[in-house]
Design goal:
The complex is a heterodimer of chains A (325) and B (368). Chain A has 325 residues and is α/β, with parallel strands linked by helices. Chain A contains ten helices and 14 strands. Chain A has helices at residues 41-48, 70-76, 92-102, 111-118, 134-146, 164-179, 234-243, 267-275, 291-306, 312-320; strands spanning 3-12, 15-25, 30-34, 56-61, 64-65, 77-80, 152-155, 183-188, 199-204, 207-212, 225-229, 247-253, 256-261, 283-287. Chain A is elongated and about 70 Å long. The chains are: A alpha/beta (325), B alpha/beta (368).
Chain lengths: 325, 368
């Protein structure tokens, strides 16, 4: 076990950021935490990085308790905060040198480890960090987090605000870092990135909803799912669908809607109802759920569990904040 | 140690790369010294004077023309009653009144003794003091030149009186006050801003997550400013000496050590501020309003402490600058040694320890 999180609670005043979170990471695993903004991902990562102390529960990194043994934890963890922790008025090289010295090592000593990452930005090593593109900043921040050869790499939304090509490159880099035997914990709001992980945890509102292989997550007892497509304006369309009796949940997926029903027997009534809307462009197709659909399914499941019946739309509107790619 | 030097050299890179910081750090002291030195204090020109010549003889008329030909004064008119002085002062038509006694020349020749009274509007204390000094200089020079004509010994008794601020305590000795002000400003403002900047840009998060101890982080951030502030203190002393002939009568080493103590105090205040402020802006306002203004107003730098209401006098004794100014005046101007300043030094030392402890207690090993 590389990282053990056992029944961790964390509140900020009234707000309960983490509720009874349980996670176990194997050594050398590439583990993803997926969830919308405010799910508690950053709080969880800060606890693992020993920057926050849990209210209750226990968190250990390679057997060291993050509260009691925070010094050891800080030595063996490589942490990359959500906002790239770079000095904008220092050059690429100076940033890297600085973090190497802070961790009591040198760039030369660990150059092999960061080479894969660093070679992308090395041609610009004299450039100030503020003049780098988002993707280059991200690679520099990753180099800085790796420079002391950590055993566990904790990356808080490293791909947010970075272009699609750089994101792809970044995940390939993570793959190569994992080859070095480093455990990687990474959070992302992008669900397509989940498929790159060995295992993923889905978080929402401070809870871990499911932990599984990305191809397995949320499978089990999922209801049939339908794709609805219309040329009409999409938001009024979504609202209207949600109001229909028998609609369990509906969410936006690109330019179509994905809908689940409360029970299979609602299907015919549902179809009849929308047929009466006199919308020729409207199409209704049963589909097999993608990983994103399974996440949405899980999230609406969890949402329902905590609220009174009838407040369905409220739950679904949470999903609208979800970032789609 | 390697870690610590890594932090220090990074901080120097920040400082030398930021033009604004450099201007504040090195431009400000020079500008303030020159401003205070020249504009505020040292130069007088075209001071308006009124003359009440109760004697009206040859000698008094010559004295007046001597004053006017000096170039520093212009005549605003003659008076015949003392009561007029105040109304002229109030309306601003005159700043200085020169009063010759009855039978000025006769007294001087017969009794070897005559009196001139100088009255100034000291609501602007600095220029009043200067005007008086100049006037006295001109008059003394004039009467000295009479030596040959008048048989010695003789004496012209020049009596001065300053309206509105009769005490006139050491205002013109601006260097100690300015030192207290500049060192406080630079040390506390710079450190509080530089530490909150790390918070604001999120880099503090990674520093905290590193194996660095809080003490190392603070020392690493603060050490460059200790060095630079010492350079500043030396610059001020040097400028005061070279440009304004303010001497260092006592030991320069004691003076520098006291500066170091005061700088440390100001820096720990800066760190304390930074632990409370979340953004650079808040830190700046904190330092400016919370430190700079009280330092100017309550330290005795500009307004004499004895003239303050009791409650402000109490308040002024928690101003580090107040004690530092006393120390610097003693060492610099009077040339006294530790024997006369140990009490003030102890007070500063106590304050420093207090602020360092408070800052360390507030500086968390975690984010909360």
């Amino acid at each position: 076990m590389s990282v053990v999180i056992h029944r961790v609670d964390k509140s900020f005043k009234e707000f309960r950021a983490l509720k009874q979170v349980d996670l176990r990471l194997d050594s050398g695993e590439l583990f993803g935490v997926i969830g919308p903004d405010g799910a508690g991902k950053s709080t969880l990562f800060r606890i693992i990085a020993s920057l926050l102390a849990p209210d209750s529960g226990r968190c250990e990194v390679n057997g060291f308790n993050v509260v009691r043994d925070y010094r050891e934890v800080r030595r063996l963890i490589g942490y990359m905060p959500g906002r790239f922790s770079l000095y904008m008025d220092l050059s690429v090289e100076e940033n890297l040198n600085f973090y190497a010295r802070v961790f009591g090592t040198s760039v030369r000593a660990n150059y092999e480890l960061i080479r894969e990452v660093y070679r992308h930005i090395e041609p610009f090593k004299k450039r100030l960090a503020k003049r780098l593109s988002g993707g280059m900043k991200q690679k520099l921040a990753l180099s800085c987090a790796l420079i002391h050869r950590p055993q566990v790499l904790v990356l808080d939304e490293p791909t947010t605000g970075v272009d699609a090509v750089s994101r792809g490159e970044f995940w390939e880099l993570l793959e190569s870092i994992r080859q070095e035997g480093i455990t990687i914990l990474v959070s992302t709001p992008y669900m397509d990135e989940a498929e790159r992980c060995d295992r993923v945890a889905l978080m929402q509102k401070g809870r871990v909803l499911d932990v599984a292989d990305p191809s397995e997550i949320g499978k089990g007892d999922m209801l049939p799912i339908y794709a609805l497509r219309s040329n009409r304006e999409v938001y009024p369309f979504l609202k209207r669908i949600r109001k229909l009796e028998g609609c369990r949940s509906a969410w936006l997926f690109g330019d179509e809607l994905h809908v689940t029903l409360k029970a299979p027997q609602h299907a015919s009534a549902f179809r009849k109802e929308i047929a009466g809307w006199e919308d020729d462009s409207l199409k209704w197709v049963p589909i097999s759920p993608s990983i994103e659909d399974r996440f949405m399914w899980l999230m609406t499941e969890a949402g329902e569990a905590g609220t009174a019946p009838g407040s369905m739309n409220e739950n679904n509107s949470l999903s609208e904040d979800y970032k789609y790619t | 140690m390697k870690r610590f030097f890594g932090l220090v050299s990074k901080e120097f890179q920040h400082i030398f790369r930021d033009v604004r910081t450099l201007v504040i750090l090195f431009g400000l002291p020079v500008v303030m010294i020159v401003l205070f030195g020249y504009v505020v204090t040292n130069e007088i020109r075209d001071v308006k004077i009124v003359v009440w010549d109760r004697s009206g003889d040859q000698l008094s008329r010559e004295a007046v023309s001597k004053i006017l030909s000096s170039g520093y004064f212009i005549l605003a008119g003659y008076l015949d009653r003392e009561e007029e002085i105040e109304s002229l002062f109030r309306s601003g038509e005159a700043k200085v009144a020169v009063i010759f006694e009855h039978d000025f020349e006769k007294n001087l020749v017969r009794e070897k003794k005559a009196a001139i009274r100088l009255v100034t509007d000291a609501s602007d204390a600095n220029s009043a003091q200067l005007a008086l000094n100049y006037l006295q200089g001109v008059l003394t020079g004039f009467f000295m030149s009479l030596d040959q004509d008048v048989s010695l010994p003789w004496a012209v008794d020049i009596k001065t009186r300053m309206f509105y601020n009769e005490e006139m305590r050491g205002v013109y000795m601006f260097v100690p006050g300015l030192m207290a002000l500049i060192l406080m400003l630079i040390s506390s403002l710079m450190t509080s801003v530089t530490i909150t900047r790390e918070k604001e840009f999120g880099t503090m998060e990674l520093l905290l997550a590193s194996p660095l101890k809080p003490v190392e982080i603070i020392l690493g951030k603060v050490t460059p400013y200790v060095l630079l502030s010492l350079v500043n203190a030396a610059t001020i002393i040097l400028l005061g000496y070279l440009v304004f002939r303010v001497p260092v009568m006592g030991s320069i080493w004691i003076l520098m050590l006291e500066c170091l103590l005061y700088i440390t105090l100001a820096l720990s205040l800066g760190v304390l501020i930074s632990t409370h402020a979340s953004t650079q802006q808040i830190a700046m306002v904190f330092s400016m309003v919370g430190l700079l203004l009280p330092t100017i107003l309550l330290s005795g730098f500009i307004f004499p402490i004895d003239n303050m209401p009791k409650i402000l006098q109490w308040f002024s004794s928690i101003m580090p600058a107040r004690w530092f100014i006393v120390i610097v005046k003693n060492v610099m101007l009077k040339g006294t040694g530790m024997a006369f300043i140990w009490k003030e030094t102890l007070i500063l030392l106590g304050m420093t320890v207090f602020f360092i402890l408070a800052a360390l207690k507030r500086f968390n090993i975690r984010l909360e």
